Amino acid sequence: xxxxxxxxxxxxxxxxxxxxxxxxxxxxxxxxxxxxxxxxxxxxxxxxxxxxxxxxxxxxxxxxxxxxxxxxxxxxxxxxxxxxxxxxxxxxxxxxxxxxxxxxxxxxxxxxxxxxxxxxxxxxxxxxxxxxxxxxxxxxxxxxxxxxxxxxxxxxxxxxxxxxxxxxxxxxxxxxxxxxxxxx
Length: 184
Known about the structure:
Elements lengths: L17 H25 L7 H25 L4 H27 L6 H15 L4 E2 L2 E2 L1 H14 L5 H27 L1
Antiparallel strand pairs: 1-2
Helix pairs in contact: 1-2, 1-3, 1-6, 2-3, 2-4, 2-5, 3-4, 5-6
């Protein structure tokens, strides 16, 4: 997957706040998830509406936030710093999701809360699965694939789980690790 990402800070020596890191991560994760959706569609899997694409992006984002949480829990982050960073990341993503959903649906509904609720559900669900040496286990990848499958159209729907598990997640993680290495 070839996408432009922001993986380096301009002033490397300046310490960053959780909000700044969360914002930079959110920007990159949104781009990665969007590229995944485009790749899934280019492989012949069906999405019918932009709203459906946002549903798939939301599922991928929940997975990526979980990956960030697992990665920083393995590093030297205090519980308070970890919570602050994950909260900043989730709130940035919720704002972007809210703005996109309002544009698509042409309404003034609040889309932040449902997104945060879904993310919290997935974080709890995904915490049950293995994550070793910076890599999500088979069952975690399968569950993400199943969640994406639930949001996709009918055409070749049964194969999208394998596409997500075997191609999308590994490709996305390669790109994400470049981001995480420098931003975290």
